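---------- Forwarded message ----------

FYI, see the Arginine deiminase record below. Original note from H. follows.
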Amino acid sequence: MSRLYVGSEIGQLRRVLVHRPKRALTHLTPSNCHDLLFDDVLAVERAGEEHDIFTRTLSDQGVEVLFLTGLLAETLDIPEAKAWLLNTQVSDHRFGATFANDLRCYLNDLPHLKLSKILTGGLPASEVPFQSSSILQSMYKPTDFIIEPLPNHLFTRDTSCWVYGGVSINPMAKVARQRETNHLRAIYRWHPDFAGSDFIKYFGDEQQHYDRSTIEGGDVLVIGRGAVLIGMSERTTSQGVEHLASSLFQSGQAKKVIALELPKDRSCMHLDTVMTHVREDTFSVYPNVIPDDVACWSLTGDEAGYIRAKQESSYIHAIEKALGVGKLSMITTGGDSFEAEREQWNDANNVLTIRPGVVIGYERNTYTNEKYDKAGITVLPIPGDELGRGRGGARCMSCPVERDGI
């Protein structure tokens, strides 16, 4: 087993966790998609084909691809993990003791791959083959979900994020995504690829209510050399940033966290939808959301976890100082103001760097891709007409678990 370590955003990517959510996407409808945080329903087969091209592009670049559904099924092979997951995801408090017990008994007898797909893809009442004596089951309509689908598992970046020698298992801000975290808790605790490995769990491994301390991995950029850049967005709070920063400082894994204040808006729900790192001295950025004077703080701390926050006059200077580089180069979203806004919405800035100067991005963002090319950044294009409707690009759809530093 190779090392579980992510030392940067741009070093050679070696292993990555992804999810191809077919069952969950089949459960998206015009009446429920907004509650499930999607703007539209996706063409399921085409979305799957696009995801296959994405993962094939990763493999062609020498990246080992891990699939969430398979990892979860293999985790369920371990009796302790299976019992914990069923008790957690099908709890007495969620369903009432009678129906919860009946449902757990039914799920417990399923093949583990099918169970994995139900836990991630949902279970409508019409597919339940047993009759419980509980009140709850009789109140369900056939199209009601007993287990809600988790289509946002597609964006594996958010639920957990690896930062240097450890992982943050993130308390998610939105109810529609909070069950995702338990799947990652189980995988990192019990799956043979992770169990017994030497890594730190910074945040979120315990089942508890983190109140306003929420954080999602799309806001966390491991920019290297002991520095981490985090956006405070509609999903990530300053409390969540300080909680993670404190754990990073206590463990000695990071020496500085730079926090940016983002608008609390869906169009820029995470930092990586408006800014990514593509080469040591180069970032992609949408300046309408991240102007030069965006509010920015540098956080430092000690082994006791104490946080010292200092407001900075320039986020660019703060990054230059943290990375020890000269003047940063900023590649702004391409086209005129209308074209740039459209391309940002379609994740032109949300690219996944494979190695310095080589990124995966959606082929539809022609103006921004042209600017990458002129700046010496190679774009490996993938289709995203369907996948992009979920408001996430190549970086969102990937959770690196092994990446070189810089």
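H. also flagged this: The longest strand covers residues 13-18.
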